[in-house]
Design brief:
Shape: rod-shaped
Order of helices and strands: HHH
Number of strands: 0
Helix content: over 70%
Mean pLDDT: 89
Oligomer: single chain
């Protein structure tokens, strides 16, 4: 009888140890997945950080471009020499006594 109880106790401990090992591995794998993958993981965080840097750079570029356009608008409204330059270069305008020659590459 004592031997049967002892075997039961040993089997119970073995099953308990196996259950602990399985639980340890499941929790470990879950934590690793959560840390590296998943919606809040390290990899996703790095992607978001890179995207943020790209958007910040694009925002700075667009801000600079907007400032240039604002300056160009101001010059087109008030700077007669600039208006004349644009009219000549972009639209091929000339004064009555001038001739315009367009040179095209081969």
């Amino acid at each position: 009888m004592a031997r049967g109880k002892l075997l039961k106790s040993v089997r119970h401990r073995i099953l308990l140890n196996r259950a602990r090992q399985v639980l340890f591995w499941v929790v470990g794998i879950f934590l690793i997945y959560t840390f590296f993958g998943g919606p809040f993981g390290f990899i996703h965080y790095q992607k978001l950080k890179n995207r943020q840097a790209e958007l910040l750079l694009e925002s700075r570029h667009l801000t600079a471009r907007a400032a240039d356009m604002e300056q160009q608008i101001h010059r087109l409204q008030f700077d007669t020499l600039y208006i004349e330059k644009v009219a000549r270069e972009r639209y091929g305008f000339a004064r009555p006594e001038e001739r315009v020659f367009k040179i095209t590459p081969h």
